[in-house]
User: What shape does this take?
Amino acid sequence: MPRDAEEIRDHELFEGITARDLVKQMKAAWGFTAGKLALGVEILEEMALDRDCIRLLSFPACIMATGTRGVLKELLRRRLFDAVVTTCGTLDHDIARSWGSYYKGSFDMDDEALYDKGINRLGNVLIPHEGYGALIEGKMRELLTDLWEEGIRSISTRELCWEIGRRICSKDSLLYWAAENRIPVFIPGITDGAVGHQIWIFSQTHPLAIDPWRDEREIGDLIFSRKRAGALVIGGGISKHHTIWWSQFRGGLDYAVYLTSAVEWDGSLSGARVKEAVSWGKVKKGAKRVTVEGEATVLLPLMIASLLTELGERGPRGP
Assistant: This one.
């Protein structure tokens, strides 16, 4: 047995146990993912309290269709991250859920029957057609018309996200708090969603341009604005890659917490573990890092509830 090996201890459950209590016990109880989850929370705590760290949040749109949207919103409301990189679907769901409701469903439902009833299925989430496509079309058309009449002819995705947050979304939305707290939200794949498609349609009669280079200049300025950089990367895809892509130019992330349910043996970025990014210089050698395997709608609320309790006692870094 290695000299520094620590003994595994059983969980001790008691009435009134908190998320923080449970996560702290996971570090000693170990298990096959529990220890990683506890380490992930510790890294997020250190990152949040590091006054010289730029903090990035990356996630795909799918979790915005669930109640996990409230966890992500809270991270921005409390200014725990300095910037967000996500996908166009995040805008779609944030607008749709500001004006309507999504419903519980099942992975095993009859999709042909759902289609006939005008219901879209996202995993086990049901989205009424009238509360998605037509709603987003109407809200975006109104917004884009207003911007055009105000003389806007070119806009970055960050600027667009703030305008959506200010003019369309409700106070329980992520984009509202991004705009309220002036936290940049970048959408590198803006054309891949309902919002992006509406911009394209509008541009056929009103030559309004999306300027991605303005976003890139802003990300570049942001990534070099402090001595260190850290990221919470949920899931994968373009939002994950854009986050770590920019991080390589400053020598890599100093803190990195990945949360993923994807496998690594298919070679996809979504399943790539954080140690793979070290070989690219996207995460520093010696960085505080961990990959937590698991499904975000289960693990993220537990991790963030524990984090917020800890920060509430120690006092988070200011904006």
Observations:
- Residues 40-314 form a domain with the Deoxyhypusine Synthase fold (CATH 3.40.910.10).
- The chain has one domain: 40-314.
- The two ends are 46 Å apart (CA to CA).
- The mean pLDDT is 96.
